[in-house]
Input
Amino acid sequence: MSVREFVVLGTASQVPTRHRNHNGYLLRWDGEGILFDPGEGTQRQMLRAGVAAHDIDRICVTHFHGDHSLGLAGVIQRINLDRVPHPVTAHYPASGQRFFDRLRYATAYRETVQLAEAPVAGDGVFATTPAYTLEARRLSHPVESFGYRLTEPDGRRMLPGALAARGIQGPDVGRLQREGELGGVRLEDVSEVRRGQRFAFVMDTRLCDAVHALAEGCDLLVIESTFLDEDETLAVEHGHLTAGQAASVARGAGVRHLVLTHFSQRYSDPAAFEQQARAAGFDGELTIAHDLVRVPLPKR
Output
C-alpha cells in the first residue's frame, strides 16, 4: 500500500528549545523517502519518529546555515553504518560544496553506500523519475537558499459508469489503459484526468517571486514562519517570513494543506501562529507543526 505523508522531526529555527528540535523533515512518497534539512539531532529524532536510515533515498538541503545542515554528518554516517542497500542522492546549493564536503567527511567512518552528490546550481527541474519531478527555485536569504517543489505527472481516473455502459470489464480495463483504445473505445471516453499531486518545501526566505511560484497549486505546502506579524521588520532584516505572510502566499496559491514551521524561540504560544494565519485569510487545512507530527497528503 502506498504511503504519502510528511514526517516532522524538528521545528525550531536557529536555537532549539526544550520542546522543539532543530529542523528535520521526511517526505514519504510511496516507496521513496526524501529527507529535508537535517539539523542537529536529526538522527535521534528519526529514532523517536520511527524513521530508519533505510527510508532515505534523497537528501535535500535548502541552505548551509547550521540549523538546516549540521545533522548531515550523523545522517550520512548512519546511512553507511546501516549499509543502506540502495543509492542515496544528495541535493544542496552548489555554492555550498565546501560545507557539504566538510560535513560528509567530518570524522572517520567506513563508506559502504553509494552517496551521489547532485548539487543545485540554479532554478529549474533537477531530477526526474517516473513518479515525480523535482525542481528548485532560488529564495531570498543572506546565504544562497533554494526551495524545492515535487510534482507528480497527471494520470487518468477510470469512470466505472462509462466502462459499464461500453461493456468493458475485468482484464479489458487494464488493456485499455495500456493501449489507449479497445474495440473503438478510447481511453479518454471512459476516464478523466487525475491531476498529479504537488508538494513544496520553502524554508528561510523573505517574500519573493520564487515563494509564490513554489507554492502555486500545492496540495501540501511546508513553509517557514519564523516570526509573528508584529515582528515583520525583524523578518525582513534576517531573511524570513511571518505567519501572516506565509498564509497569504498559501491563500493566493490555492494551497489545500498548509504546514507552518521553523519557529523562533522567542515565541511560546503556537496558537498565535494559527490566529495570524487565519487572520490572513487562509481557510484550508492548517497544521502548526510540532516535533514528531505526521501530516498525510490530502486525498486526490
In short: The chain has a mean pLDDT of 96. The two ends are 15 Å apart (CA to CA). DSSP finds ten helices and 18 strands in the chain. The first strand starts at residue 4 and ends at 10.
